[in-house]
Here is the input.
Amino acid sequence: MAADPESLTRNRLLATLPEPELSRLAPEFDLVSYGLKDFIYREDEPIEHVVFPTSGVLSLISQMEDGRAIEVATIGNEGMVGLPVFLQATTTSAHRAFSQVPGESLRMSAARFSEFISGSDNGALHWVLHRYTQALMSMIARAVACNALHSVQQRACRWMLITHDRIGGDEFLLTQEFLGQMLGVTRPTVNEVARELQDAAAIDYTRGRITVLSRRELEARSCECYGVIRTEFDRLLEPNG
Here is the structure.
């Protein structure tokens, strides 16, 4: 489905652009739906599209030779997948990208995106993508520290709060496999954390579906990293951030 300027504003990056730039971009985007585990790109393969989520959550995953995988970053309507294209790369060897929480995204061919950002009259897009690169690097750096220093329950609450912010609803799909990848833990540990949060009436977790019952309880049980990450994105994505 072809996109229109209004649909572009559902992505926070694109929403910062002036109307003339949005109007030039809109015909280049398709509005697509990604289901659970749909791939955007894999390691050592050309990046064919850049993707700006408007709902749902996409994941960047790094996989080891023995098959184990861990999440590098999650991306929602505050960001984009395909940042290497903006940085003038055509492939990535470090990670793969796929849909973790189903939803809609705006998709443009990587070749057309490269042409667009090379134009001299698209300075606002350059500016916001530079700011987003900084925000994403800050988020990844914070997550590295968080994974080393904070408990599994704190990290799980951080992830759930960030996801809750992105999807605009209280329910989302989340399998034990994905939660284990995100936290770098085994399924028994995932079950233990989920049970603790259910006992605290923070969430309901049934058949791979999480329902947020109490944001206040999740925030109380999360580490400070949730607030730091959210504040950093809000600051860097402000017009004068």
Observations:
- The chain has eleven helices and twelve strands.
- The chain has a mean pLDDT of 87.
- The CA atoms of residues 152 and 183 lie 7 Å apart.
- The chain has two domains: 5-119, 151-222.
